[in-house]
Structure formats: structure tokens, C-alpha cells
Known about the structure:
Radius of gyration: 21 Å
Distance between the termini: 47 Å
CATH superfamily of the largest domain: Type I PLP-dependent aspartate aminotransferase-like (Major domain)
Number of domains: 2
Structural class: alpha/beta
Bound molecules: pyridoxal-5'-phosphate
Amino acid sequence: MFEKFFEIIEKKLQQLKDQQLYRSIIDMETAEGMKITIKGRSYINFASNDYLGLSKHPLVKKSAQKAIELFGAGSGAARLLSGGTLIHKELEKLICKFKDSEASLVLNSGYTANSCLIPAIADEDDLILSDELNHASIIDGCRLSRAKKLIYRHKDLQHLIRLIKDTPCNGKKIIITDTVFSMDGDIAPIREIYELCKSEEALLYIDDAHGTGILGEGHGTLKHFGLSADNFVIQMGTLSKAVGCFGAFVCGTDILINWFINSARGFIFSTALPSSVVASSYASLKIIMEDKTLIKKLWENTQRVMNTIKTLKLSTTDTQTPIIPILFENIEDAMRASNILNNSGIYAPVIKPPTVRTPRIRISISAGHTEEDIERLNKALINLYQQPHQA
Ligand SMILES: *Cc1c(COP(=O)(O)O)cnc(C)c1O
């Protein structure tokens, strides 16, 4: 049975292998700080979004342990049944304070958030304008919404303005953008887009996955630009990156959040996050709000690597964040470079099409990296530069 189907997918997998686009899972055997071991070899991890090293913070770990003792390992049900706890509510209160918003809701992941929140705010009559480099979960959310979707060129305000002004629409207009683009590390022109939404009476939906904990003294991209969480702004963010835990959240007005509770399918029909995960996020957010040394360290580490990238004139994007891509003309060159870095104990894998257009090694810097770790990366980059394979 199904011979044909298996034959087809086997052939497709072979094609991916032939094009060097085949993906496979790599799991770690140990992880101590940013030091990891994979297949018995040790590396410094430059492939993690744990930008502040908070996943390993003693207080963050302790909070999860305490919550497990109180509520057990799993939550047992969706939030609307019996899956929620006091800790979920407390985290949402803290997120409101953190993001200066009226209300917030915790969701199970960033992917879940985008794929269920966008369909909850947009339908057939509406028009979504979406940056061409937006995260895959936004693209899927837009598809599920059945709204008309127009893609504007990456961060191209003129293009966005033309599309929003020239496209007739009976319903709402919604602009959706990543704040920090996950594969390029550049920042969307949020101030201009914010003003455009105001003047065009459009909703603004921002995905602050890589801005939260990093920009605006940790509070995220709105704070970075000095903008207020006005009622036309919907802020989504994750607890899985700089917060170092797992899950996501959305912030908005009371009415909006109540609407999500009553209509977002990925919220209603999925088991709530375990209280341990929620409690660790709570502890982590508290640290981000109260202790600015980690953020300072993150930017110092980033600056030290960027200096090397600039000195060596390695090809990169116009990154403004701890996401540092090194671009290559083809996958082979990127793979070769990644192997050279691997041999120096640096773990920074290649990101390939179709995830990105230009193959790259994506280096992410963390406050969890020690001075020696950064030094080791810089030396490995210098060594890489001496090989003639870079774009
Ligand atoms: C990582 C990421 C997500 C998905 O978040 P998860 O919590 O990993 O599911 C969504 N949007 C952007 C921009 C991301 O970088």
C-alpha cells in the first residue's frame, strides 16, 4: 500500500540531498553554559537564540523546579478547562508591565501565536501587508486567515505606502512585520510603519521574537523607538529566545485579548503550557527588567565580533543586533566555511535556501558567551578569512 506515495517522497528527499538542501536533526549530548557536545566533540554554541544565557540562570531553573513540585510536570488541560494556574496569570500581569500594555495572553509557542492570532483578526474582507522576509509562522497565519495578502519588498516603505494607498479594501488593513528579522538581524523601520498605520487607520501587528530581551533595554522594539502601545498596535513576542524558556505572548487592549481567548484556535484547542515553563519565564522576565548587566554584556560581546567582521570585511547583512550572518555565494562555500569553524570548536551551522535566499552561516551572540568564547570565535573568523572561499 502507498508504494507510490513513498516512492515520490523518497525521490524528493534524494533531490534535496543532491541540491545539498536536505535537513537532518542534530541533538546535543551535553550543554554547560554555551559549551555543548555533539557526537562526542565539544563546541561553543553560536547557534542558539538564548541571547542572555537565561535558560541556564540558577533562579530561572529553580523556579521551574518549584513549580513542578506545586503543579506537576504537565498542565493536564487547555487553559479554558483546567490547564492554567496562578503562575500563568502572574506571568501575564508581568508581561503587561514589561510591555506597558493593557492586557496580555500567553500562548504555547511563537509559531502557534502567529498561526492562530492572525486568522483571529483577519478575514476575507481584510487586507494584510506583509514584509517579504517575515517569519514562516506569519506567512502560515496569513494563509489561514483567508485575507487578501500583499507582500512588500523588505523594509521598503515606499513600496508599502504605495500598496496600502492603492489597494481598495472593504475591510481592515493590517501591516504585519518582524521587528528584528531572524535571519538577517536588521530592524524594521517601526517608527515609520507605526505612523503609517496611524494615518491609514491600519492595525499594526509586530512580531518581537528577536527584539524582546534585546532592544529597548530588554523591553523590546516599541520601547527602542520610544513608541507607546496604542490601541492599534498588537505586540506578539516569544519566551523562547532571549527569555530563555518556552512559549509566546500577545499584548493588546482588554477587548482584543478577550477576543483572542474566544477565537484563537491555537489557544482554545491546545493544552496549556506547564506551570514550570511559565514560572521560569516569569523569573527570567523579572531578571531582564531588574538587571541590565546581561544586556550590556550581550552588546559588548556583539560589538567585539562585529569589529572582527568589519576588519576582515566579511560579507554580512546590515545587521544591528546579536544575529550576525556571514554570507556566501553558494551552499558549498558556506558548508566548507562552517566545517572550518567546526574544526576550531565553533558551532555555527549553515542556513540554506529556501529559509534564506543567500546561503549563510548565522552566528548568534549571547551574554552567556565568556570573553574566551568570543576570542575563540574571533580567531576562528580570522582563520576563515585566510581561506579563499568567502562571498
Ligand atoms: C522563532 C520565531 C518565531 C517562532 O517562535 P517559537 O517560540 O520558536 O515557535 C516566530 N517569529 C519569529 C520572528 C521568530 O524568530
